[in-house]
Structures are given as C-alpha cells and as structure tokens.
Amino acid sequence: MDLMLLAPEITIAVTGLAVLIIGLFLPTGSKKILGYLASLGVLIALALTISSLGTEALVFYDTVSIDALSQFFKIVFLVVALLFTIAGIKYTEGHSNTEEFFTLGLFATIGMMFVASANDLMVLFVAFELASLATYALAGFEKKNAKSLEAAMKYFIIGSLSAALMLLGISYIYGATGTTSIPEVAANAGVLLSSPIGLVSVVLLIAGFGFKIALVPFHMWAPDTYQGSPSVVSALLAAGSKKMGIVAAFKVFIIALIALQAEWQTAFAILAVITMTYGNVVALNQKSVKRMLAYSSLAQAGYITMAFVVLTPIALGGGIFYALSHGFMKAGAFIATAAVTYMVLSENKDSNDPDHIDNFRGLGKRMPITALSMTVFVFALAGIPLTAGYMSKFILFSSTIQAGFVWLAVIAILNSAISLYYYAKVVKYMYFLPTDSEKVSEPFPYTVAMVIAVIFVLAIGFWSEPFVYWAMEAAKVLIPGGM
Amino acid sequence: MAPILSMIVLIPLIFAALALLTKTKEQARAIALTGTVIVLLLTVYMYFNFDSTIAANQFEELVEWVPSLGITYHLGVDGIAMPLILLNAIVLPLLVLFTWNDDRKSPNKFYALILATEGAVIGVFTALDFFLFYIFWELTLIPLFFMVSIWGGPNKHHASIKFFIYTHVASLVMLLGIFGLYFAAWDMTGTPTLDIPTLISQFQFIESGIAKDLIFLALLFGFIVKIPSFPFHSWLPDAYTEAPTAGSVLFVMLKIGGYGLFKVMLPMLPFTASPNMMISIMAVLGSVSILYGAFLALSQKDLKRMVAYSSVSHMGYVTLGAAGLVSLSVSGAMFQQFSHGLIMSVMFMSCGIINNATGTRIINDLGGLAQKMPKLAVIMVLIFMASLGLPGLSGFIAEVSVLAGSFVNLPVYVMIALLAIVITAAYHLWALQRAMFGVYNERLGTVTDISTYQTFSMGVIAILVLYFGLNPSPVLDMMLTNSEHIISLMAAMGV
Predict the structure, then answer these.
(1) Does residue B495 have a pLDDT over 60?
(2) In the predicted model, what is the mean pLDDT of residues B467-478?
(3) Which of A386, A399, A402 sits opposite B135 (nearest CB)?
(4) What CA–CA distance (Å, rounded) separates A302 from A306?
(5) What interhelical angle do B394-407 and B411-436 show, nearest 10?
(6) Minimum CA–CA partner of A428 in chain B
C-alpha cells in the first residue's frame, strides 16, 4: 500500500498531534504560533490533495477508496478547515485552550475526510463519529458562556441519538446482506428489497443523516447550535460537518442502496421541499444574523437534497458543486459575523447578543472589508449571477427541469426568490442604515479568511470550468454509467 | 478589431466603480459624464459601421467560458439591438447633464447606479448567450431597486420592493423557460449550448408540443412583465412615480422586455404547437394595455402617475405590433420602443422639473405655468404632441405603422386599440391645459424656468423626436431589415 495516497490525512493528523503537544509547553501569550502551524498543515494537506486529483485507488483492504468523489469533498473540507484555522488565530487570541481548539478542529477534519473516502459502512460510521465528537466539544468551547454550553448540549444529545439511529440502520443492512462493504451491499441489495428490513434501515438512515444535514423535521438543534456556538465553529459546522452528512448520504443511498431508490426518493423529495421552504420562511424574520444564517443553511441543504430526488449525473454533479460553493459562502458569512461579534465584544464586553442585526448598521463605513465580503457572501447565497451560488443553482435547478421535476424546480426557484429578501436585508443594514459609531480596525486573520473565501466565491462563479469538471467527475463515481 | 461591444458594456460598469470612489458631487458627475460620452462616441462609431441591409448579428465576439455546460461569452448586435443601444447611449449623457446641478445625498452612489444601469441594459442588448443574457437581465434590477429605495418619493420602500419582487419572480419564470429550452436542445443534439441564435434555431425540432408551448409561455411571461403589459403592469405606476426623475428615465430606457419579444419570441412563435393561440394572447394583452392604460391615465390626478400610465398604454403598441406579424407592424413596434424611450424621458424630466419648482405634481393644483416657465412650456407642448401621436413627430410613425400593419391580421384588436386614440389625445391635452395654460395659480409662489443644462438635455431629445418624426429611416431601415427577416422565416414555414 502506498502511504502517499493517505498523505493529506496523515499530514492533518500529525499537525493535530503536534499542535496539541507543543501547546502544552507554550505560555498562553505565545500560543498564536499554533494557529499558524495548524493553517500551514491544512495548506500542505490541501496542496497534496489537489496534486493527487485524478488518482484512483482502494486501500486498507478496500475499506477506503480514493476517487474523484472523495478527492472533491476532501478539498471542500480542507478549504473549510483552512478558513477555520485562519479565523481561529484571531478567535483564540489570549485563550489558554488554544491547542485544543485547533486539535479538535483538525481531528474533525480528518473524520470528514475519511467519511468522504469511506468504502465501508463501519469506516464511514467511525469517521462520522470522530468528526462529530470533535465538533461537540468545539461547540461548547466557550465554557463560561451559557449559550455556547446549551448549543453543545443540544448538539451532543441529538447528535448521539442520530448516530444511534444510523448505527441501527447499518446493523440491519449488515444483518440482511452479511457485509458492510458499500459495493457489496449494493451487489446484495436484492435481499433488502425482498424483506421489510430494507425499508426499516432506509427509514433509520434517513433519520440519522437527516439530523446531520439538518433536514426539517430533524433540524431542531441546528438554529440553536449555530447561534450559540462561537461563529468560527458555526462556520465549521455549517460548511464542513453538514457536507459530511451529505457525502455520507450520497455514499449510503446512491451507491449502496440504489436498488431501494423507490423507497427513499420520494422521502427525499418531501424533505427537500419542506426543508427549503421552512428554512427560507423562518429566516425572513430573524433578528440574529447567526440564526438567520442557520435557517438559510437549512434552506441550502434543502436545495442540495434535490440531487437525491433527481438522480441524474448532472444533478448529482450540481449537488456536489453546490456543496463546494456553499462551503465557501457559508463559512465566509459566519466568519464575517465572527468579525462583527469581535468588534462588538471589544467595545462592550457584556453585550448580550453581539450577532444582532442592529450591530450591522453602517458596517460599510465601520468595517469596509468585512461589509463588502459579507455582501458577496449573502448575494452568493441568494444566487446573484457571477457568484458561486448562481452557478450552483443554475446547474442544480436546471438539471431538475431536465429530469422532468418541473414542480420541484418551481418550488426551489420561488424559494430562491424569497431568500433574496432576508439576504438583502443584511446588505441594507450594512450600507443604507446610518450609524453614529466610529470606524474600527478589522482583525487581520478574519480579513484574510474572508478575502480567501471571497476570491473563491467569485472565481467559482466566474471561472467555473475546472470546478464543474471535477464535480461532474465526482458524480460519475456515484452513477458510473450515467443514467 | 477592438472588442467594441465588450467596451460599451464594460466601460459604464468600470466608470460606475470609479464614481463610487469619489467624494464630491463635482467628481462623481464628471466621471459619469465622461463614461457616458465615451459610450456615446463608441456607439456612434459602431452605428456608422453597421450594415443595416443585413439581419445577421454584427461585431460578434465569441469566447469559450464554461465548455462543459456550453456557456460562452458571446456578444453581437443586430438591427433590433442597435437602435436601442443608440437610444441608451444618447439619452444617458443628457440625463447626467440634466441632473448636473441637483443637490442630493450620496451623489457618488447616484451616478454609479446610473452608469451601472447603462452597462447592464446594453449588456442585455448585446448578449447572445442565455447565461450572459440572464446575468445582465438581473443586473438591471439591482441599480434600479436602489435608485428607487434611496432617492425615491414618500412611498419608495413599497414601490421598490414591489418592483423588485414582481420583476424578479418574472425573471425566474423566464429562467425556467431558458432551462427548458437548454435541456430540450441538449437531449436532442447531445451537446449543451446556451447560445441564443443556436437555441432559437433548434426550438423547432423539439418534439413535444406541450414542452414547446410551456417554454414559449415561460419566456413570454418574463418579457411581458418587464414591458410591462396588462395585467402585469401594476409595478410600473408605483415604481415610475416614486422613482427620482433620473430613475424614471432609467426605467424608460429599460426596453429589455420588448427587445426579448422581437429577438427571442418572434423567431420561435411559428414553431410553437399552437401559434394562433400565442398570437391571440399577445394581441389581447397589447390591445387591452393600450386601451386600459389610456383610461387609467385619464383618471389620474398626479401628473407623473398619468405619464406612467400613458407609458403602459404606449408599450401596448409594442406587444400588439409584435403580434401583428407583418414587417410593417413589427418594425413599427420596434420603432415605438425607440421613440417611446425618447419621448418618455422628456415627459418624466418635465414632471421632475414641475415638482421641484412648485412642490406639487397634482394637475389641478398647477395652472398657467407657461407664463413663468416659457422654455419648459415649449418643450412640453412638443413632447406631449409627440406622445399623443401628432404627425411629423416620431410617435406618429410608430403608432401608425403598428395599427396599419396589424390590421392585416388582427383587425378586431386594432379596432379596440383605435378607441384609445381619442382618450390618449384627451388626457394629454387636458393635462397640458390644466397644468401649463390658463390663469397662473398664485399659490404656487415664484417659480423659475429651467436651467441651461436642463434646456439643453430636453431640447436635444425634443429635436431628435422631431427629426425621427420627419426622417425615421436612420433607425427604421435596420428595423425593417430585421422584421422582414423574421417574417420571411415564418413565410418559409407557411405560417
């Protein structure tokens, strides 16, 4: 076995451990170096992954597969991790637990990367749990903040429940087919089709993944957790952890359980419609920007779920492409919120709701780079042309029409129209409502993270060809022969 | 050859960004004037190098963009687009001059939005790829939304949101139509393309009649709302009335709905499963708009609102002429877009001046303004006459061509529209008489006549209205070439 194939994962693991150990010997004041170290590690892993695009291999007794799909999602996760670590440099400033913050973040990233390349249900589950456990702890990183603890608690309890459901579903599949290998499950799916066990496991798995992806009605935890967690962690949850749920669901449903398509396709259609509509409608009236982003994240997950309904190579490519775009847009938006939160808290330590939309008043004058970046992110999320969000919606929605699901496309497009209202509201607050506060200096690491995200959001929207190409390659892994 | 089309699209957008960076009114307006004049010069150059005897796209630029989805950067102009680009290029520098001495908050944003609108609208007229077309189409929405919501009248928030949602939903329906066309052609040929001429030519080979009708109706809806036509016109009076004067003029320049009708709809029309139904839909919408808009205009108390409704009525001629399907009516409808753009911009400028000078636009509160504002009165009388269709002015040529041409195929609808002519004359003359003539209403206090800049802007456009009324051929020739081309395609199909 060629270890080079796992070089990105190994790099992240080594960096994570190194950060943890070095952190023990550093005084709090000089722990800033850990953030740079973590970012460097992620950057190397990202470079390694990009350089190995196109390789295909099976390792660890065929339980881990390296292919276009896994590489594509690994890039998504690593990019989110990069934004997370860069923004984390500022967030953890002066914090005595800096090393834990970065180590947990990196471990979560490894978990996500292994989910992306899992070729076996057990590997998938263990990697899923690795990522989940690390993010539970991260959500409660602000130990003295009741909201953060509540967020972590809710996330932990519901996450554990969903893991249990998922495991139960996997065990039924194993019981019926006698294997946990994803391709072999697919080959033996006839057994599942002929017995009620198949249906039971589909229901359990939809519920399990539904929690992670935050599909309505399994979404209850998401708004509270995204709002309560530190914004930088919310970025990781919404942009990274959620995509992990999606890639896991891709693997389990579209590769392993494709034979049971009739059982789950309708369920996903209903979930997609409810999720996008509920997310958008509830987002309209939110006063907290983070909560608004949380609901918008539900809506976006609803759009991506359409790929499970349409199931054509273009739709799946569109869903995968959407996951990439969403990673940049959502992580960027949360980091911009983090910058605002930082500004509010540095002015008034006891501020209760630093993410209230009133704090965005006149941001265009107070923090010009943050405001401009936030504008790009929300417009991209709304699907304004020439951004990554538009390109994603263009591919995904149009493929829906191609496959004949015109009603679904109409609902999605109307939803998209609704969403513009609350996204534009943020821009209105930033640029058109007056403020009497002074201009403040923008925290440098947040700015770097936002600028990277802005560049990619615009690059994906403008120079889409390579991204679309690799997303379509990834989709071919899911449906080898096309439809 | 220099990429002249990219230049006339990008220069306004670049100057918009520059204008945003300025600090004072003087800098912002200088940049706006420079940008719009450069576009005017380039457009004039392009106009004189344009071959009006062929219907094909000229000055084409084609660059691959996203090959795996068939997206290209494809620009070009034909005889449908060229006059509309010319219209924008002529009116916009004059609009900047018109607002030259106005004092308003954030002049940098104001001029940036004017330039951004110009770039986006010209972008729609030049785009030959649906992806690009849609981008520019949506881009026109954003500056106009802000134009109304920042500098608008008392009801600006309501008006801007209504405009935005109304036309955004329409654009999304149009997008559905584009998707449908895109994939129907992709399934048929095996290669994805969003190229507008290619997709239009492939439309006829789509097998399913229902699919063809749905695609056609979805696109038609997007265009009809933008025109706008009855019954989707209700955003227009609010938006036009609440917008600042410059915003109203920009709305008038937004001829993208009618453009879509000629460029996309007409070549597809004969190949739909039920062309007669589609023609009837367009004819009904057009003739009802003409009559209903005229009645609504007659009942308005606010001068600007009256002008807004008269715009609905006039744009009805565009829809009706397109449905007329003979080259006279189609070229007349195209000419109506051009002429209406010139006339309406002066109408709205006049409303803005009256409002600024007297503080009211209620027609009955005005009176005898001609005594105090003789220069304005001269221009207004000329333009009102043009708007009601007096021979010798540009409005007459357009309306006569539409009505005479459409009579061949659609006599009943033309008769409905003819009823409106009397009402149109009535509300124009009545408003003019009450507002401008008669005894001066002393309660209005002292008012001063229009400034030199304003006289120049309005005067130039008024002279153009007169010029094109006497000699329409500089733009009508290329419109005729293109409408004859469209009609010959239909004749070849035996429609």
Answers:
(1) no
(2) 92
(3) A386
(4) 7
(5) 160
(6) B146
Q: Give the tokens for residue A86.
A: 């860069």
Q: Cβ-count burial of B153 within 10 angstroms (0-12 exposed, 13-18 middle, 19+ buried)? A: middle
C-alpha span between A236 and A131 (Å, rounded) = 11
- How confident is the model over B313-331, as pLDDT tens digits? 999 999 999 998 888 999 9
B contact test, residue of A379, A431, A465, A467 with most B CBs within 10 A: A465
Q: How many Å lie between the alpha carbon of B66 and the closest alpha carbon of chain A?
A: 5
Domain spans, chain A? 3-478
Instruction: Give the phi and the psi of residue B302 in degrees, each rounded to 5.
Output: -90, 125
Interchain CB contact of A413 with B (< 8 Å) = yes
Calculate ∠ Cα B441-B446-B452, nearest 5°. Answer: 115
A27: Cβ–Cβ under 8 A, 6 or more apart, which residues?
Answer: none
Could you tell me whether strands B58-66 and B71-77 are parallel, antiparallel, or unpaired per DSSP bridges?
Answer: antiparallel
Q: Could you tell me the CA-to-CA distances from A111 to A103, A210, A291, A473, B282 in Å, in that order? A: 12, 18, 26, 23, 59
Prediction pTM value: 0.82
Please check whether residue B186 touches A, CB under 8 A. Answer: yes
ipTM of the complex: 0.71
A473 CB neighbour count, 10 Å cutoff: 18
Share the mean pLDDT of chain B.
90
C-alpha span between B44 and B33 (Å, rounded): 16
**Amino acid residing at A46:** L
Residue of A nearest to B165 (CA): A417
pLDDT tens string A28-63:
888 888 999 999 999 999 999 998 888 888 888 888
> Could A413 and B175 be called an inter-chain contact, meaning their C-beta atoms sit closer than 8 Å?
yes
Q: How many CB atoms lie within 10 A of CB A287?
A: 11
> Domains of chain B: which residue ranges?
274-495
Rounded to whole angstroms, what are the CA distances from B118 to A21, A356, B130, B328, B409? Answer: 60, 37, 19, 29, 36
